[in-house]
Amino acid sequence: MRFLKADSGLIGILVVLAVTQLIGWGTIGLPAIVGRDLAADLGMSLPAVFAGTSVLYVSMGLCAPWLGKFFARHGARKVMMVGTIVTAPGFVLLSLAREPVLYFAAWIVLGLAGSATLSTGAYIMLNEAAGKQAKSAIGALMLVTGLSSSIFWPTTSFLSGHLGWRGTCLVYAAMLIFISLPLYAFAAPRRSVATDDGSAPDRRSDAPAIPRSTFILVAAVITLNAFVNFGISAVMIELLRAEGLAPAQALAFGSMLGVIQVSARGLDFLGGGRWDGITTGLVAGTALPVAMLLLMLSEGATWAVAVFILLYGAGSGAMAVARATIPLVFYDQAEFAKAMSMIALPLNLASAISPPVLVALLTQFGSRGALGLTFVFSCATVLILVLLGRRRPRAIAAVAV
Fold it and tell me: Where would you find the membrane-spanning parts of this chain (predicted)?
C-alpha cells in the first residue's frame, strides 16, 4: 500500500488500533451470543436485553459532540486512554448485574467509554498522523477490524460455555486493562498532526464552504447504513435462526460474515486507489438491498442463506469503509474531527435503536419484517449516495471519475 511506503510509522499506529479496535468492538458484541442467557438470568425479554446495546449507542452519541472538543485539544491518544480505563469497570458492573437497572447502568458506562475509544477516536488518530493519506489508513484498519465478529463470536461462545457470561465479562475487562491500555500508553504516538509540508494543519481557505444541506446528506447516508449494518450484525444469529437454521449452523454462517467483510476491502483496491468513499459506497451499497430481497424470497433455503451472507458481507464490509471515508470527500484535516464528532450523534442513535427494533420485528413478524425495513433503508442509502456524488468538490470529482 502506497501510504505505508510513504510513512512506515503508520504501521505501528495501525497495529495498535487494529488490536484495540478488535477488542473494543468484539467485547461489546456479547449479547449477540449470550443474549438468551442474559434474558434468563436477569428475568428480561430478549428485546430488552438487546436494548442494553441501544443504551450504549445512545450514550456514545450524546457524548460524541462534547468529546470532539477534547479530541481537538488533547489529541486522540489521551482521550482513548481515559476511555479504556472507564470501559473496564463497565464490564465489571455488567458481570455483577442481577436486575435490569444495574444491567442498563453498565451499558451507560460502556457507552461513555465507547464514545472515546471506538471508531471515531481511531479515525481521528489516523487523521492526525496520516493527513491526506487518512482514507487509505482507515481502509487498512478496517481490513483487520472487520474480523471482530469472526474472532469474538466464537470466543464469547467458548468463554461463556466454560465461565458463564459473567466470567466472560471479567475476562474482557482484564483484556482492556492489560492489552488495550498499555498499547495506547506506550505504543500509540503522542499527538502529532501531519500535513504535506510538516507544518500545522491549515484549512483550504480557497475552498468553498460546504453547504449545511450536504452535511445533512452525509449524516443521513451514514446514519441509514449504520442502522442496517449495526442492527443486522447484532441480530444476525437470531435472524438466521428465524430462517430455520439450527443454532450451531446459524453461528457457523454468522461467523463467516467477518471474513467476507474483510475480503470485501478488495473492492476499494479494485479502483486502483482512485475511488473515494462515495464511489465505494455506491458500488457496495447496491449489494445490500439485493441480499435482503434474495433472503426474503428464498423461504430459508440453505443456498440462499449462503448467498445472502456473501452479498451482505461484501456490501456491508465495503460500506463500513465508505461510512468512515465519505466525510474526507468534503472536509479537510482541520474540519474532519469536528465533522466526525457531529456525525457520531445520529450514527450512534441509529445504532442504538436498530437492534431492539429489528428484534421486535423478528419477534412479531418473523424475518420478513426485519428484512423489509433494512431493504427500504438500503435503497434510500443508495439514492442519497447518488445525490452526494453530484455534490463532490470539483477537484475530487475529477479524480473520482
Answer: 12-34, 46-67, 79-97, 103-126, 138-159, 165-188, 209-232, 244-263, 275-297, 303-331, 343-363, 369-388
